[in-house]
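Lab notebook, bench 4. Continuing the backlog of folding jobs that were queued last week. Each job is logged with the same field layout so the records can be merged later without manual cleanup. Today's entry covers NPS3A protein, a 223-residue chain. Filled in by technician R.K.

JOB TYPE: sequence-to-structure
TARGET: NPS3A protein
LENGTH: 223
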Amino acid sequence: LATGPRQNDSVFYEIRTYDIKPWKMKEFVEMANKYFHFRTAHSELVGLWSAELGAMNKVVHIWKYDYFAHRTAVRQALASDKDWQGKFISPALSMIEKQHNEVAYLVPWCQLGKPPKEGGVYEWVTFQMKPGGPALWGEAFRAAINAHINTGYTKLIGVFHTEYGLLNTVHVMWWNESPDHRAAGRHRAHEDARVVAAVRDSVRFLESQQNMLLVPLQFSPLK
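JOB STATUS: finished
OUTPUT FIELD FOLLOWS
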């Protein structure tokens, strides 16, 4: 099956999702805010969020790596970091019910963005596309994303497509000033003929979709 344009940029992102035991969520967040500086001493953290809507007791974090050997070196260093292992990993293991990780690239037409200001919320939208890769659905998907951008109600942060994990998965991250601002913008978008036409073309390639509203933790670079 076609996999789309050649991936020329070696930079990739590891998306890690942790399901936390409900009675341990507050403690986990407090511990992350206190000790995550030991982890970020080794590699770049893009963002760290907790799910507010669409899921519960879930933490999402995204890490940037220059290439796969870079990640290997970081993981080896983390295994030898006594502060990280002792102060965070050891107590955290008893708080985590499930871990999931994916490796993803930014789509070629998207650069990682930043919100215009701090204090908003992030929408994490996961699309499961039909097999065939960006060569099959890439242009239609891009048109749908651009149609939403052009409405002006939301800010695109990034579009990631998976390399490891469930293939033909695309994660889109948006930023909005508030959940109410996002809701009002969505209502306007649903009445915009340009958005309706672009989405109608894109959903021909869509198998499923899931949304989460994420709130950045205190230590998150993206706030």
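OBSERVATION: Residues 1-6 have pLDDT under 50 and may be disordered.
SIGNED: R.K.
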